[in-house]
């Protein structure tokens, strides 16, 4: 049961250049994600996620394991596979009035207008940029939105939790059934070793949060 609480996922981009090692790294997460190998492909230019280099191997390995996520900078018109949640990467919050259910990743400061103007099912965001974690999470949950909380900073020189993590701790402990944990953004700027360290930090953070309620 405890492994279902605060599941860990990633955003998309990775520092890897080898397809198999990237997919295997993604599979270490509770909710695997389609790797984007930004050193050898341009995510911005890819409109169909089937064109990502890791797509075929990733789908082959995850289609029987339950929930997984895919993502790109564009909406997808393809028919989704069972268990798949497709995220649109929208760092500049350009998507407005999207009436169909949509999952979004935004590493900018999320506004309430952005939330209310779209039919969002899942929202991935940088926890550093949220000033009132409790109120923000309550607002998302009231609207039926699953929060993917980016608790590990990806823009600092060192690997660390978000600077306001002490404010997030009680909120996450109160919502272990509802929230996911993730890095704030993709990991393409890291080394492969640093990406492993970030996963380990996420896993240790979850253990710490759950120890307090077990």
Task: Report what the structure shows.
With 214 residues, the protein is α/β, with parallel strands linked by helices. The protein has one domain (2-211): Alpha-Beta Barrel (TIM Barrel), CATH 3.20.20. The chain contains 6 helices and 8 strands, in the order E-H-E-H-E-E-E-H-E-H-E-H-E-H. The chain has a 6-stranded parallel β-sheet. Helix 3 (112-116) links the parallel strand 5 and strand 6 (120-126). The longest helix has 20 residues, at 192-211. The N and C termini lie close together (11 Å).
Structural domain count: 1
The CATH first-level class comes to: Alpha Beta
Q: What low-confidence regions span 5 or more consecutive residues with pLDDT below 50?
A: none
Tally of individual helices: 6
Q: If you compute it from the alpha carbons, what radius of gyration comes out, rounded to the nearest whole angstrom?
A: 16 Å
Could you name the CATH topology? TIM Barrel
The helix-and-strand class reads alpha/beta
Share of residues in strands: 15-25%
Defining traits:
TIM Barrel; 6 helices; globular; 214 residues; two-stranded parallel ribbon; alpha/beta; 18% strand; 8 strands
